[in-house]
Design brief:
alpha/beta; 14 helices; 8 strands; 422 residues; single chain; 8-stranded mixed β-sheet
Length: 422
């Protein structure tokens, strides 16, 4: 009897078919399916996160921003330490390259935003390098993270009271060098910034230490703040402080003939205005002084034309402005002019050094350029240094590219003042 063998199920399987009892690849019952899905979602999430991070950093560095205090503070910090953009940019480029085939769209976004961040992280160095060469100051990348040039409160151990201004005693912090027999030190009167309505003496202590290290004593002054007083009264406070320093020059061992007035932001505006209106009865000193003249004046990103500044920035809607300026640009035009250094240029104004960032989003660089142009046209002694890619308050990063160039330019300016007036 011939036996007939029944074909088995295994014999009937085609080469490409799967066994009934084994789960198909990619089926919902596959034990590998959830793990693959999690990895996919995780990689996409990381790519999107890196792309968004780099995009946000680029916006903070490059885009105009609404005048929201916290946002402005964060943007200024990111811009001042722009080199940190290189790290997330490198992460984005590597991640995009590794995941390009699997997630082309996410990877493309990550690479694009990373490239933009890399540009804004590296290009400021390339541009600053050329400017630094002009002043014989090679940039030091190792000094980039040297520290923060900001103090939350005055150095009260150094605080002294100077002449009474408008019913109150003005204060200053002494950063003076020890007296030496037969030697008079040159000195700087420093005026802090803060938008005319905030800030305090010794707000930027690294500048004071830097001046001291180069043989210059520093008097870091306070002045009355808006809205209690107008801008012209603040200029009078600066003149009062300068006159007090001159009167006490012998007591502190300084040479009044080598006295330089300097300030940043609003302080730069007040310093320039005080220096340019010396002897002008329309802007009197807040206290009785014989002489408030200076041998030179330095402005770091200070406003120079109040009417244009207010009309062209967020200050236009600031309720403080009418009180600060004593009215509108139309009703108080004379006050606006007296508080605008660009309108006060004469051939005999003190030698001037202007330092301004080309990317300043608080005080447009056009303000400094206009004053520099007018000083040049008048034949007044002046130097203008435009710091590439630098934003407002660039010197908060004491080791930043802008700070390094600014120190070189100021060092040269002080050397000339010290030699010519010694």
């Amino acid at each position: 009897m011939t036996s007939v063998m029944t074909p088995t199920i295994a014999a009937q399987r085609t080469p490409g078919s799967a066994a009934p009892d084994s789960p198909r690849r990619g089926s919902r019952n596959s034990p590998n399916r959830p793990r693959v899905s999690c990895v996919t979602h995780l990689s996409r999430g990381l790519l999107v996160t890196v792309a968004l991070l780099n995009a946000v950093l680029v916006v903070l560095v490059a885009a105009p921003l609404p005048r929201i205090p916290l946002l402005v503070l964060v943007a200024a910090a990111v811009t001042s330490w722009g080199l940190v953009l290189v790290l997330p940019a490198a992460v984005g480029l590597v991640a995009g390259a590794l995941a390009g085939r699997r997630h082309p769209w996410c990877a493309g976004c990550a690479v694009l935003s990373a490239f933009a961040a890399l540009v804004y992280g590296v290009m400021p160095y390339a541009a600053a390098y050329r400017t630094a060469e002009e002043y014989g100051q090679p940039l030091a990348p190792t000094a980039y993270f040297e520290g923060v040039n900001y103090a939350k409160a005055p150095d009260r151990d150094r605080t002294r009271r100077y002449a009474r201004t408008g019913g109150r005693r003005g204060k200053l912090d002494l950063w003076t060098l020890p007296k030496r027999a037969g030697t008079r030190h040159p000195a700087v009167v420093w005026v802090h910034g803060g938008g005319w309505n905030k800030g305090h003496r010794s707000q930027t202590p690294e500048w004071n230490r830097w001046f001291n290290a180069r043989g210059w004593s520093v008097f870091d002054i306070d002045y009355r703040l808006a809205p209690r007083v107008t801008q012209l009264e603040q200029i009078g406070d600066v003149k009062c402080a300068v006159g007090w320093v001159r009167r006490h020059a012998r007591a502190y061992g300084i040479d009044p003939g080598r006295l330089v007035l300097a300030g940043s932001s609003a302080g730069g505006n007040l310093a320039l205005s005080a220096a340019y209106t010396e002897g002008d009865d329309r802007v009197p000193s807040s206290c009785a002084v014989r002489d408030s003249s200076v041998a030179g004046v330095i402005s770091l990103y200070g406003p120079t034309d109040m009417r244009r500044l207010i009309a062209g920035t967020a200050l236009r809607g600031d309720p403080m402005i009418p009180g600060l300026m004593g009215g509108s640009a139309k009703s108080a035009s004379a006050r606006y002019r007296l508080g605008s250094p660009a309108k006060l240029v004469r051939t005999d104004v003190p030698p001037t050094l202007l330092l301004h960032g080309s990317a300043d989003r608080a005080v447009p660089v056009a303000q400094a350029r206009e004053l520099a142009r007018r000083l040049d046209s008048a034949g007044a002694p002046a130097t203008y240094v435009e710091l590439p890619w630098a934003d407002h308050c660039f010197d908060v990063n004491w080791g930043g590219w802008g700070s390094q160039i600014a120190r070189a330019a100021i060092s040269r300016f002080l050397a000339i003042r010290s030699e010519s007036d010694a």
